[in-house]
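Deliverable D5.2: sample structural annotation.
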Amino acid sequence: GGRGGRSCCCRCGGRLVLFLYFSLPRLWFSGTVMAEAPGAEESTESEPGSPSWSKSQLRHYSFPTRPVQRLQHGDPRAEALILNEEPVVLTDTNLVYPALKWDLDYLQENIGNGDFSVYSANSHRFLYYDEKKMGNFKNFKPKSRREEMKFGEFVEKLRDIQQRASEERLYLQQTLNDTVGRKIVVDFLGFNWNWINKQQAKHGWGQLTSNLLLIGMEGNVTPAHYDEQQNFFAQIKGYKRCILFPPEQFECLYPYPVHHPCDRQSQVDFENPDYEKFPNFRNVVGYEAVVGPGDVLYIPMYWWHHIESLIDGGTTITVNFWYKGAPTPKRIEYPLKAHQKVAIMRNIEKMLGEALGNPLEVGPLLNTMIKGRYE
C-alpha cells in the first residue's frame, strides 16, 4: 500500500541505508545484531481463520479471489514465484524481526524529531494523488489532505480522533531517513539484510530506493494501484488484507490517465462499481492474502494491489522495501509480457502529452487514431 514507486517518497533514495552503511561499524551488517531472531520453526504467524482475525473484519466486494500462497522462505515454490514475478506471502524471513516490538509509544519515544507526512480524510479510502500533476487537471479535488507533523503530534491527533469517535481518519506514510533515533537505527540494522540483499542480487534488481513506514487506522483502505518498483511489504503490527491483480487485468481496472494526479490508480470504486462506465470490471479476479506481524508479502512490479487495515483491528504498522526493477534486457523476447505492454502504453501517453504540449489533448488524439480504424 502507500505510495509505491512514486518519486515523492523516493527523494531520500535509500538515504537511511546509505547513512547507516557509511556511518556505523560494518560488522553490524554481518548479522551479529540478528542473533536473537527466532528460527523458522518458532515462527508464530497466524493462519487464516485463526483467532487473530475473522472474516467479519473484511469488506465485501463483487469479484472472486483466490488465495496467495503462504510459504516458508526456503521453500523452492516461494523462490519460483518470486522468480516468475508472482505474489507470495513469506512467513518466516525474520526480515523485520527487531521491529515486531514497535507500537505507537515505542516509536514516539525513539523515532526522532523529523517531519512525517500524514494524510487525513473524512472517508476510509485514501486515494493517492501526485501533487505535481494537479495543475494538469484544474477540476481535480483531492479527497485527502497531506500535513507535515512531528510523530508526537500525529499520535496526539490520532488518540484525540479515537476518543471523540470522529469520522476523520489518518494515515502516516513516511520514508525512513537519517533523522530517526538511535534505537530505531539499531532495530533497522537488525533487519535481515542478508536475506533481502540475496534476493536483490539473485533477481538482478536495481538499488533499494526507499523504506516507507505506513501507520494506518483500523479500516483504512488504499484503493487499487500499481507501482513501477518491486516491493517486499513487511507487516509489523495488526493485520492487513491485500488483494492483488496481475498486469494482464489492466483493461479490467481502468487506471486514470498518466498525466492525471491519480496516475496508476484504478478509477473503479470497488465498493460501488459503475459497470456502465467500467464494463470489464465484471471480469476481474483477485489474489488475496491477510498478512499479520512477521509476514512479508512480495508485491511484484506492475501488479495492482488494494490494501485494507482490518475493520476493528486496531492500528496497523507496515514497512515497505522498494527496489528498482531489473534493467531492460539487451535482447527483447517476443511476445512481450503484460507489464512490458503497460510500460509501452505509459510511454506513448507521456510522449503524446509532450508532443501536443497539453495533456488534455492526449485522449482526443488517441480516440481519433483508433475510432473506426483499430477497433
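Annotation notes: Residues 4-13, 24-46 have pLDDT under 50 and may be disordered. The chain is about 25% helix and 20% strand.
The annotation will be released with the project's public dataset once the embargo ends.
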